[in-house]
Design a protein that fits this description.
196 residues; alpha+beta; 9 strands; 34% strand
């Protein structure tokens, strides 16, 4: 049992500009608790809203066959001339999948993934050069994890450093009650390119 949140924080682009870069158009507006699979089904493949500080936040359907926020070609286009911070969280009992990454000016700058259930991400899989603050964020969780492992506990602490890094970079606390409930999202629909 658990839940999934997959999102991107885009600096300096409007919802309309994002739709254009993703070759989409803005559909109907939605509001409410946009977390979890049921809400993602209501939103469609992806939706864009504007955070209180003016930054755009994209939520997407992580169960989709080709999630928008995992398409390198689209992320390159979306991040051209700006910065996009990606976040994916799939929490389950005792562990989960945690990922934060950054695309800048059309290229992936770095990505950090943690999932205890996969050998290559058991501690942290780091691609590129992450911000220096990550080492400071991860140190106390690594110590806590070492103690838990020594005691034979099944609890996983390492994912919290990934979440903390996302919060530090964006100022968005994914678990603060109601932070996304008050956002109005516009559904992103693929542009209808009727052949003619």
């Amino acid at each position: 049992m658990g839940w999934v949140l997959s999102m991107a924080v885009v600096e300096g682009l409007s919802a309309e500009q994002i739709a254009g870069r993703l070759e989409a158009e803005l559909g109907e507006e939605t509001i409410g608790d946009n977390s979890g699979k049921e809400a993602a089904a209501r939103l469609g493949p992806a939706a864009v809203g504007i955070h209180g500080d003016g930054r755009a936040v994209i939520l997407h359907e992580p169960w989709d066959d080709a999630p928008v926020l995992e398409d390198a070609r689209l992320l390159a286009r979306l991040s051209r001339g700006t910065r996009v911070v990606l976040f994916q969280l799939s929490e389950r009992v005792n562990c989960g999948f945690f990922q934060v990454g950054c695309w800048v000016d059309g290229a992936r700058a770095w990505q950090i993934t943690h999932c205890r259930e996969e050998p290559e991400t058991q501690e942290y899989q780091i691609l590129g050069v992450p911000p220096g603050i990550f080492a400071d964020k991860a140190a106390p969780y690594r110590a806590q994890q070492a103690q838990a492992d020594a005691a034979g506990e099944l609890t996983c602490y390492l994912g919290a450093a990934v979440v903390d890094l996302f919060v530090s970079l964006t100022g968005i606390h994914y678990d603060r009650p109601g932070w996304w409930w008050d956002l109005r999202y516009r559904v992103l629909r693929p542009v209808d390119r009727a052949s003619g």
